[in-house]
Amino acid sequence: MKELLFVLADLWLIFTGFFYGWKFIRRYGNYLLGLEWFILATSASNFLAWSLLGGDEDSFMYSVAYFFDAFSRSVGVSLILVMGLMGATHRYKPTRAVDIAVFVLGIAAGLYLRQFHGGELHVGPAVFYVVVNALATVFLAYFSWRLWKIRAKGVAIGAALATAAGTYIAVTYDFFPLPGDDEYHTIFYILALSTWGFQGFAYYFGYRALHERDVTTAGEPAPGGERVARA
């Protein structure tokens, strides 16, 4: 039963990553969020394939999994996420050079930090992951507040719950193994993959709500080219 739930949670993250990543790029031209969502989905695809093929720790896919994990935990679901969501909260549109630079930074961080994964706890990198997550959480709380302020209360609650769950996963990831979990941390990964997929889902709809509110009040062209009248 646990194995089935693990596969379903992983497939959920793969779906939300590719589906909403494409929507971020196609509908809003937001390459920061779109590509980060693609990275999460690719990471989940690699992780699922590695698990189904036997979970060999000497496999190349095992090293790739740790790279993607380090990329997203250090820069992806922190700096890139915040910069991307600022497109809806502050009309922030980074230049192509900024887009490239921040992903190069993420790649460098992923390549460096992947060495600290393994059975033993590496306190420095683990604390770093928690700190960058906490900093992103401050902005995500603001993001949820902005949604509540425009009366998108259901979306605001969803974004807040996704953020709270993501913070829980970030804190427990290295420091607090779940009691009763197996040696492969199956229960933890069921919760983590489900949470990361929920974040991808919730933040997309939060971004959409803020963007459409901004379009309506500013009278700017909506996606598809149709101009919306000023409220």
List the keywords:
231 residues; 0% strand; disordered C terminus; mainly alpha; Rhopdopsin 7-helix transmembrane proteins
- Inertia-based shape: globular
The CATH topology name reads: Rhopdopsin 7-helix transmembrane proteins
- Kindly give the count of domains: 1
Strand content: under 5%
Number of helices: 7
Mind summarizing the main beta sheet?
Answer: none
Low-confidence stretches: 222-231
Q: What Rg, in angstroms, do the CA atoms define?
A: 18 Å
Helix content: over 70%
Backbone structural class: mainly alpha
- CATH class category name: Mainly Alpha
The assigned CATH architecture is: Up-down Bundle
Mean pLDDT: 90
**End-to-end CA span:** 52 Å
Number of strands: 0
Could you walk me through the main structural features you see in this protein, from its secondary elements to its overall organization?
The chain has 231 residues and is mostly helical. The chain has a single domain, classed as Up-down Bundle (Rhopdopsin 7-helix transmembrane proteins). The protein is built from 7 helices and no strands. Helix 3 packs parallel to helix 7. The longest helix has 33 residues.
Give me a quick take on this structure.
This protein has 231 residues and is mainly alpha-helical.
Write the layout of secondary structure elements.
Elements: H1 2-28, H2 31-52, H3 60-89, H4 96-113, H5 123-149, H6 153-175, H7 186-218
Helix pairs in contact: 1-2, 1-7, 2-3, 3-4, 3-5, 3-7, 5-6, 6-7
